[in-house]
């Protein structure tokens, strides 16, 4: 009995660790020839951190990231709009984290290998399709040197990202990922932390947004931390933008002039950008929600299932939650189609809501309201937007996304600490 996991990203590795935790055999297949720490900063909400702590990763998380304290909104002129606490400071029983995506990924990979052995993840094998034979799922794979093979297991989980081959087979008529017309430029810089020292800030409005937060503790000697930054700029959708070239090196002239104005006494965005060794350019894309993720003994998870705009700090967390929910259903129903259908019935509606909400009503929409009402200039923010309106918008998003304080603290464990998988006889 085996769970075949197509994709060794954060979602796939979280599933591997969750399977191992309860004694479910698994095998991960990853297209990259070797694992490398790619990417820049991401955030983990307490609901996702709770699941990583349940996997015994609390100390490891403190090695690869920092516990976020607060989350603030500012106009492009530097005026304060709204700040709310994060993690423990907000009343959650678990912290929120800001981490380097690559360091988190490599930590999860190292843990899978340490716990399950060096053969648990086979690199250099890309999923190309799936089939079903009697009571088995069949995963088709190809290598970079042209080899191909098939592997049989009880179920296949497509964790192969936004360009998932598993999803493509399920949805052969689906178009390419949908581009919003916005481009993200991202990088990390060594600099002194701002505000509380563990603050995340969003500055500007739709079409011109700057986001920044630290993803490491300050060095004791230099007092410098690794500061993650993101420039979000709306461009003309008619331009011949290479929106499928996800990680090409960027040209500062394409975006820096628009962000020269983001310079305050506590934050100098242009200086952060210019001090960065390597800047990457990404299209802001998502995919429309699907009516189904599951065909027989094969289903989807993470970005393969529900790629959404990167707002709300719930992208990686949603994939981690998928992993835990899947294993909970395996414990209930075995490695069966019933388990996959039960997982889909719970997770598809919730994540579909997030995809649509992130397009139009993400937590940062408060900044757009302020820009529309006053152009980002005011004497008192309460004259522009009442505090109660901002608080309700923030709370409503958390409730809808499934990580409100009460929803997180009061929820029973997804996987009981003593749970063990019992194969069907």
CATH topology of the largest domain: FAD/NAD(P)-binding domain
- The end-to-end distance, rounded to whole angstroms, is 11 Å
CATH class of the largest domain: Alpha Beta
Spans of at least 5 consecutive residues with low confidence: none
In angstroms, what is the radius of gyration? 22 Å
The CATH architecture name of the largest domain reads 3-Layer(bba) Sandwich
How much of the sequence is in beta strands?
25-35%
Helix content: 25-40%
- How many strands, which pairing sense, and closed or not: the largest β-sheet? 8 strands, mixed
Sum up the overall morphology in one term. Answer: globular
Number of helices: 13
The assigned structural class equals alpha/beta
CATH superfamily of the largest domain: FAD/NAD(P)-binding domain
Taking strands numbered 1, 2, ... along the chain, how are they ordered across the largest sheet? 6-5-14-15-16-13-18-17
Summed up, the domain count is 2
Query: Number of DSSP strands?
Result: 19
Integer average pLDDT: 92
């Amino acid at each position: 009995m085996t769970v075949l996991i197509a994709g060794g990203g954060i979602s796939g590795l979280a599933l591997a660790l969750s399977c191992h935790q309860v004694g479910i055999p698994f095998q991960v297949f990853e297209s990259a020839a070797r694992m490398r720490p790619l990417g820049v900063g991401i955030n983990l909400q307490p609901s996702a951190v709770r699941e990583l702590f349940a996997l015994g990763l609390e100390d490891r998380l403190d090695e690869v990231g920092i516990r976020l304290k607060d989350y603030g909104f500012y106009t492009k002129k530097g005026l304060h709009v709204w700040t709310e606490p994060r993690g423990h400071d907000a009343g959650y029983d678990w912290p929120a984290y800001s981490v380097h995506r690559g360091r988190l990924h490599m930590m999860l990979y190292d843990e899978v290998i340490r716990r399950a052995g060096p053969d648990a993840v086979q690199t250099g094998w890309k999923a190309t399709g799936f089939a079903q034979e009697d009571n088995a799922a069949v995963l088709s794979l190809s290598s970079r040197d042209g080899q191909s093979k098939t592997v049989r297991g009880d179920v296949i989980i497509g964790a192969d990202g936004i360009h998932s081959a598993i999803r493509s087979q399920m949805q052969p008529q689906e178009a390419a990922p949908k581009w919003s017309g916005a481009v993200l430029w991202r990088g990390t810089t060594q600099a002194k932390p701002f505000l509380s020292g563990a603050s995340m800030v969003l500055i500007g409005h739709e079409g011109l947004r700057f986001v920044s937060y630290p993803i490491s503790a300050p060095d004791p000697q230099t007092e410098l931390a690794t500061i993650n930054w993101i420039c979000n700029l709306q461009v003309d959708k008619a331009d011949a933008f290479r929106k499928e070239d996800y990680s090409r090196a960027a040209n500062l002239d394409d975006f820096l002039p628009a962000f020269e104005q983001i310079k305050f006494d506590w934050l100098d965005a242009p200086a952060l950008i210019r001090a960065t060794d390597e800047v990457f350019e990404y299209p802001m894309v998502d995919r429309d929600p699907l009516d189904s993720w599951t065909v027989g003994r094969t289903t989807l998870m993470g970005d393969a299932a529900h790629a959404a705009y990167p707002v709300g700090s719930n992208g990686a967390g949603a994939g981690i939650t998928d992993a835990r929910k899947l294993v909970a259903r395996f414990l209930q129903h075995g490695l069966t189609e019933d388990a996959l259908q039960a997982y889909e019935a719970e997770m598809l509606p919730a994540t579909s809501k997030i995809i649509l909400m992130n397009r139009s009503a993400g937590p940062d929409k408060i900044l757009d309201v302020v820009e529309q009402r006053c152009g980002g200039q005011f004497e008192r923010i309460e004259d522009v937007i009442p505090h109660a309106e901002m608080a309700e918008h923030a709370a409503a998003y958390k409730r809808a996304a499934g990580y409100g304080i009460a929803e997180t603290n009061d929820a029973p464990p997804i996987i009981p600490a003593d749970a063990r998988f019992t194969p069907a006889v």
